[in-house]
Amino acid sequence: MFKDTEHLVRLAAVMAIALVAFVTLRALVVPQSFGQYGHYRGAAIGEIAGRPIAFAGHDACEVCHTDVVDQKKQGRHVVVPCEACHGAQVKHADDPASVKPPKLDTAVVCSRCHEANTAKPKGFPQVVTADHSGGIACDTCHQPHRPKIEDKAETKTESKSATEDRKQK
């Protein structure tokens, strides 16, 4: 049928060896529970469930911090969970008297979401932080739970004086 079948036999042998090597290596490397519940390790569910809880959830925050809840209701951050900015706070929620969360560096925290990026929707508030603030913290001009500046003339005067105060220090 074929004039010179020797090269086809060699190719088939190489393919068979590669297939055996792949199947053997896969059996050695892929965990037993992989694919048990889908395209991941089934044992991962138990491992994740065994981790200690780190996040308290916004319901736990709202019980004590009703003033912040009222502020958030007036602004766009109403949909942002507390721990998205403040980090995991289950220890604080369990013992609020002795565990105090550290003061946030708003220049860092706010820029996680609001740093200008062409991939974000056009209506999403974005700034180039280096140009926008001149290095001062966001909470100098904005209230983080309700960040819209209400009185622009008053705020500009306040932010200029705050900037001058920081330069003098």
Describe this structure as you would to a colleague.
This protein has 169 residues and is an all-alpha fold. The chain folds into three domains: 6-49, no CATH class; 53-102, no CATH class; 103-169, no CATH class. It is 51% helix and 0% strand. It has nine helices and no strands. Residues 153-160 have low confidence and may be disordered.
Summary?
The protein has 169 residues and is an all-alpha fold. The protein is built from nine helices and no strands.
The overall strand count is: 0
**Overall shape:** elongated
- The stretches of 5 or more residues where confidence is low (pLDDT under 50) are 153-160
Summed up, the domain count is 3
Order of SSEs, N→C? Answer: HHHHHHHHH
Mean pLDDT: 86
Structural category is: mainly alpha
How many helices in DSSP terms? 9
Q: How far apart lie the N and C ends? A: 92 Å
For the CA atoms, what is the radius of gyration? 28 Å
Tell me which oligomeric state these chains represent: single chain
Keyphrases for this structure?
169 residues; mainly alpha; 3 domains; 0% strand; elongated
Topology:
Blueprint: H1 6-29, H2 43-49, H3 58-64, H4 66-73, H5 82-86, H6 90-94, H7 106-114, H8 129-132, H9 152-168
